[in-house]
Each structure stands twice: as C-alpha cells, then as structure tokens.
Amino acid sequence: MFGGLVPWYDRMNRYMTLGLDGRWRRAAAIVAQPKGALILDLGSGTGDLARALERAGAARVVRADFSGPMLAADRRKAAARDESPPTALRADALRLPFPDATFDAVTSGFLLRNLVDLAVGLEEMLRVLKPGGRLVALDITHAPPGPLAPASRFVFHRVATGVAARLSGNRKAYGYLSRSLDGYPGAKALAQMLTDAGALNVRYRLMGAGTIALHSARRSASPTAPSDAEAAT
Prior knowledge:
By secondary structure, this protein is α/β, with parallel strands linked by helices. The protein has nine helices and seven strands; from the N terminus they run αααβαβαββαβαααββ. 40% of the residues lie in helices and 21% in strands.
C-alpha cells in the first residue's frame, strides 16, 4: 500500500498538514540531539526526517523501512539533490536486524500507529539503543477532549484524507489513513507504554492543535535503573 503512495506521498504530506510536517520533523530532529550521533530512522519513507537529522549534525543516519519503493524514492530524491547515497535497508520494525545497543538514537516519523504490535515495536527500538540512548517518535494522535476535538476529527477523517484520496486516486490507502488511529493509544497512554517497556524520562509534546504528538524517552543505563517517567504537554 505504501509503495503505491510513492508518487503522491510528499505532496500529500504537505497538503494534509498545511506544510507544517517539515516543521514537526525538524522539532523531532532537535529532540533527538543528533550532533555526532549514529541514528536509526525507522519507517524512514522518503527520507525527510533523516535529512533533518543530518542537517542537525548527525554523524550517520541509517534509514530502515518495510517498503522497498519508499526507500527507492529516497535514493532518487538524494540523487536529484546531488546528495550522498543514503544508507538504507528494508527491515521489519518488529524484528530489527541490528545487535543490542547499536544506536545513539532511534527516531520515527508517522510510523507507530501502523505497527501490527506496538508494544513489540517499542521494545525493539529500545533494544537497539545504547544505554542512555534516546528514542524519539513523531506521529498523529487523538485530539484531546475539548470544544475543538470534534472539528479536529472531522478535518482529519473527512476533509484532509478525503481530498487526498481524490487527488491521488488512491482511495484505499487514504481510507486506511483515516482509520489508522482506531485502537491506537492517546499520547498519555503511549507514554505509559514506553514506561512499561522500561524507558526512562518519558515525555511528550502536543502540536498541531493537539493532533500531533512528539514523544521522547531514554533507554536505561542499566537493567536495574528506576523508572522516572514524565509527561509534558
């Protein structure tokens, strides 16, 4: 499905977020503290978050995605911009092909709600982090309760995804997008899942009128380190 979205993917991201997705990815890159770091960008897609990490000073960003066509689109984008070929591989987020404690940071942009088993995915991300390494996850979330919540749901489920489906001609994929939050935990619940997985210093920030969540956490420096979860909105 994601492979079929490649021709429209970047343009639809800009359209559906009113051009704010780049700002959100830059915010995620800053939170990852990438300067001099070896980073795994999981579900890297066409490489926008990976590029933000590189611009922010990452020593090396390894891209991993389940979709071969998405990785190919990233390589074409790099060639068109005269960039160095990206380090990229196909990988399953639930069974990462890396040893324990490999990366200084693991990032993802709009990936988590697509995982078949979110808890296993979080455990894998923490597993490949070095002790004290940082996990950063950017994704759509449920709008918080309040007078704007119904309007936010209507815009996401009906307006943005509906128009994207018509423009791209891929109603199946964008129909899936409108349902991708079904069963997905809210920002506070996701923070608790990270804590339950053993992450420390769990925080989140809401953006986009509460419809985008930026979570961050650290891997424990030792197996017996106490949990210290925080949630900041």
